Each structure stands twice: as structure tokens, then as C-alpha cells.
Write the C-alpha cells for this entry.
Amino acid sequence: MQFDIFTLFPEMFDGPFDASIIRRAREAGQVTIALHNIRDYATDRHHMTDDTPYGGGGGMVMKPEPIWNAVESVLGFDPAGRADVPPIILLTPQGRLFTQTVARELAAHERLLLICGRYEGVDERVRQYLATDEISIGDYVLSGGEIPAMVIVDAVVRLLPGVLGDPGATVNDSHASGLLEYPHYTRPAVYRGHPVPQVLLSGHHAEVDRWRRREALRRTRLRRPDLLARARLSQADREFLAQLDAEGDE
Ligand code: ADE
């Protein structure tokens, strides 16, 4: 899978893409990440990438030409109005909310283009006529789209087939099934007087699975009841939740 990231600060990406899973995926050739400096595509003498807003007011707005030129140059054609283009995603707090479902949707593409906005904003014509999608990573404002782009690359890359050693590794992830994940334990069996739940030491796989499912339900009910409302639940799940409600489990 290929990512093309358009940014005024390519150096921000040096650390996060050079370690751990993303580094391995790049080295294995499973992922290519190309960083494109928007400033390189400015056409004026001073390589200006922003300007004052029409209509006045404070702040600066990113100019459309350097961004558009950069995307056009990297794709080799002007994508505007064409259906056969990879997603061109503008990172903005006004976009649709990034979730595990969106990560899975993006992981199905061969190529993604990510445009990192900066300053007060990006000229509206980039959003309207160049971008095919707008994504926000949460209801807070960051100083630019660079960190959101890193978040998206990380979440998508770990979903690609063969990137994590164990093909089932993402199945139980929090949010993968619409629930938060069950708690994890490793050795020692008793740490500072706190024991690991007995069932996990029992070797009864069916019992362990049942305990994990129930703990995922218990945890999601307490922390994220909004997720429970949308999760796919079995009859046994619903009975367990009803039991927790009856007990007033906190
Ligand atoms: N740019 C600034 N804040 C952002 C956010 N929350 N998500 C995506 N892009 C952003």
C-alpha cells in the first residue's frame, strides 16, 4: 500500500515512521510512504504557501495552488472531477470522525493521499474540488494535520495483511468488534499481592473465552455505553448485560 503525504513539515514524520511496526512494514516492502513538501510546489519567487484571508480578519490561509500542483504532479494528472482516483483526504477538524471502521475502509485501498492543513485553514476550493474525503481524528484542534496523518497511517498499516506477525492479532483489538478489549495479564501470577484471575490459569479455553467476552462487555458497559448500543451482541451477551444491570455492577 502506498501513502502520499502532503505537508509543509515533512521532518515531523521522521521519528514515528522509523520505528516498530511501520518501519518493519516499510522494510518488508508492504508499505511505501512518500512525503511531499508542499513548499516545493509554490510557484512564486518567495515560495509562499499561505496568504491573508479575503474579507479580512486575522490569520493566514493556505493557498490552493501549491497543494493542487503537488497533488497533480505526484499523480501525474489533475484528479479534479475524476472518478478513477485514489482517496485524496484532507485532514481537518471539520471532517468525518476517524474510527476503526474508517481505518478498515481505508486499508482496502491500494493508495491514499493525505493533505495536512496548517494555520487557520486551507482555501475552501481545495476542500471542495480537490479533496475526495475529509477526516478528523477527534473533537479537538491540533496545530496541523501532520499528527492526524500519522495516526491514520499507523491505524491503517497494522490492519494490512501480513504486517502483524499473527493474522488474528487485530481481531480482539478494542473497537474491532465494536467493544473495548478484555483485560490482559502475564507473569507473575501474583504481583505485589494482586493475583491474576484464576480462570486464566485454568487452561480451560472455553472458560477463558467466556470470561474474556464478559469482561469486554462489562468494561464497555461501564466506560463506553455509547459503543454497546451499536455493538453486535448475542443473546448470551444481552443476558449477561441484563444481569450486570440488575446487580448494579459499577
Ligand atoms: N487538524 C487540526 N486538528 C485536526 C483534527 N482534530 N483532526 C484532523 N486534522 C486536524
Notes: The two ends are 44 Å apart (CA to CA). The chain has two domains: 2-157, 190-247. Residues 8 and 56 are 24 Å apart (CA to CA). The pocket of adenine is lined by residues 91-93, 117, 136-138, 140-142, 144-145, 148 (CB under 6 Å).
